[in-house]
Amino acid sequence: MTTDPEGSIESGEFRAALGRFASGITIMSTLQGGVAHAMTANAFTSVSLDPPLVLVCVDHGVRMHDAVLDCGYWAMSVLTDSHRELAGRFAKSGRDLYGQFDGVATQAGPKTGCPLIEGALSWLECRTWATYPGGDHTIVVGEVLSLGSGQPDDPTALIYYDGQYRALKGS
Ligand SMILES: Cc1cc2nc3c(=O)[nH]c(=O)nc-3n(C[C@H](O)[C@H](O)[C@H](O)COP(=O)(O)O)c2cc1C
Predict the structure, then answer these.
(1) Which of 18, 26, 59 to mutate to test the pocket of ligand 1 (most atoms within 8 A of CB)?
(2) Which CATH code fits 23-161?
(3) Ligand 1-lining residues (CB < 6 angstroms)
(4) What is the mean pLDDT of residues 23-37?
């Protein structure tokens, strides 16, 4: 095998390789000028226990980018398989900003007021702690202000693997 550390990476290959890293699915939400906005996100991970930090990578091109940087507060809801349709809905580019939560059962987060999806496996509310450049994304690190684990009727996790939504049954 020849090596070429300067060789370029083709975006399809990048997506295919990273798609083999199975992830959970979340809905990230924030409030911009009092308007609730949300998007589907899987570039989410824990960072630190003390202080409690998580991060999410937000594409420069999505409306969430400016909304979350402006607001400084945001929430993450970890989805169950029963939220599959919602995951698709909140990933659709250019959906109506004002009607995007129509018919979606939510609760206002106790610390931030950001919408939390009813029946989520777990949820977190965050205050932006730091932001870092990450190529065409901004890495938004959040200090966790509150969190909880739900008792959903369907505890089957919604997973994204190899470009598709999948279900992962709990034990
Ligand atoms: C499975 C999945 C995971 C996604 N994860 C992220 C993510 O972590 N960060 C991100 O910026 N966009 C992510 N997206 C894309 C956004 O959900 C999508 O571009 C956004 O909702 C577009 O919203 P807008 O029209 O308001 O800009 C993901 C999409 C899908 C289908």
Answers:
(1) 59
(2) 2.30.110.10
(3) 25, 39-43, 57-59, 62-63, 90-91, 93-94, 160
(4) 96
